Amino acid sequence: MKKQIGFMALIAVMFTLGCSQKPAPRNLLDELAQKQQKDRVGIGWVYEHKLNLIMFGAKPEMREYSLPADEAQKLAAARETPTQISEGTDVMRSPDRKAMTYRTRENRFVLADASGKIERTLADGRRVLTPVYWSPDSQYLFYVQKAGTWDPAGLHCGDDAFYVMVYRLRDGSTGPVFQGCQGYPFGGFQWLRVPSNVPLS
């Protein structure tokens, strides 16, 4: 009986680890933190006069800031809307207009050149909840991904957790920079330029 219990426990641990999201590479998190401080670029969302901003670092966290109404409106208006092409949906073009991302008919997110020719697959679209958004410098992407059924991140969410995933284009490094429950307005996340009056330290 004890052997059976031990074997079942081992299988459960292996299954959980197999379904868990790997952490983001430390060099990716460090690079994002440096870029945020230097260029004042980040991922967040704006609601009314509040800015919720992911502070990058070894342990990313969400911070909330109050903004003047006109400044909040300007940030929210900068959010891009996806379009469609014959090859797929959720099309987002890079700010430098040299590339695009989109969801194929086979439900894969891909990176393509400006004409739509696929260069590489970015992610399986089955768990991706948003389009893939470009950073202002066209060097990074982010998307929101539903956590796995047995992912430990979902334990306090009732199997309803998500991750904000960042993908670095030059080497394909990817990983989560924030996790939350789906009651959170994840559809409002965007790359944004952080106003000068928002402290980043």
Q: Brief description of this entry?
A:
With about 200 residues, this protein is α+β, with helices and mostly antiparallel strands. The protein has three helices and 13 strands.
From the structure above, extract its key features.
201 residues, alpha+beta, 5-stranded antiparallel sheet, 4-stranded antiparallel sheet, 13 strands, globular
Evaluate the radius of gyration.
18 Å
Number of helices: 3
**Structural class by SSE content:** alpha+beta
Strands in their spatial order, largest beta sheet:
4-5-6-7-8
As residue ranges, the low-confidence spans are 5-19
Approximately what portion of the residues adopt beta-strand conformation? 35-45%
**SSE pattern:** HHEEEHEEEEEEEEEE
Task: Describe this protein's structure.
The protein contains 3 helices and 13 strands; from the N terminus they run H-H-E-E-E-H-E-E-E-E-E-E-E-E-E-E. It is of the alpha+beta class and 201 residues long. It is globular.
